Amino acid sequence: MSTENNSASHGLNRRKFIQQSAIAAGAGVLLAEPLISNAAGFIKPADNLTVGQIMDLFIKSVPGGVKTETVDTLKSGNRDIVVTGIVTTMFATVDIIRKAIKLGANFIIAHEPTFYNHADDTAWLQGDEVYQYKADLLKQHNIAVWRNHDYIHSLKPDGVILGVLKQLEWLENADKDNLNLLTFPSTPLRELVSHSKQKLDIRELRYLGDLNTTCRRIMILPGAVGVKTHIEAISKYKPNAIFCGEISEWETAEYVRDARAKGDNISLIVWGHIASEEPGSEFMLEWLNKNVPSIKVHHISPGNSLSFY
Length: 309
Known about the structure:
Blueprint: H1 3-9, H2 14-31, E1 36-37, E2 41-42, H3 51-60, E3 74-76, E4 86-89, H4 94-103, E5 107-110, H5 129-140, E6 144-147, H6 150-154, H7 159-168, E7 174-175, E8 178-188, H8 189-199, E9 206-208, E10 214-221, H9 227-237, E11 241-244, H10 252-262, E12 267-270, H11 273-291, E13 297-299
Helix pairs in contact: 7-11
């Protein structure tokens, strides 16, 4: 762990530690969900599990169960495919599909879309060569792709947030009632940013503000939650910095610029969408290892699609 993180961690008091131990314990209960499927009852390690059984098993652990409106549908394959191996990832890219084939895995659980739009609508892509190549590759190797976005975010606690906090080693700093809100001893923003870059494997990121300012309270909002969520969080919780996945440059960044001009101690750190939510796929790997131990599971990061010049 970096020197700056040590200084933050050593400032934790016993009460905070006990509170966050309770959070971790709750997460442990979630990960230890009994091996039960809606379709098959108790799942034994020797069973030949299908895509549908594994999907149902995860959905069973989510408060409220099956969603009537969701993007979490199969993007290829079907529920009856017997699973030979699983790959968890942020995006089921062509490279990820090829790696799954080499691993003998025929089930990919992705967090984000496979076909370039939120709903994975492919009607407008008919005749597109890139779409057809990818769809044919999946069909040729009988690979099922399931998007697990709405369900993992609906876990209590949110599986992505929990994964991010664990990877950052900031779980103890999170508020027990709102894991997005973190409190630290007075710490230079530069140290928090450097620590997050190291832990999330980010080479470069964008920011707005003063890295030398002192922070006590920050918000983390991975992914693309939108400008309303960003601004409402800043307005309600008054953090010294907001760490987020991605923004529209004409929205959150302009609000923070104006807030700083007004005199507010607020900075904006933009990790990038993939880097900010990739730990959710690590959470999914851990969940699968605990709940379907008979199947080999791999986590493969697609990496950032963009490079820095």
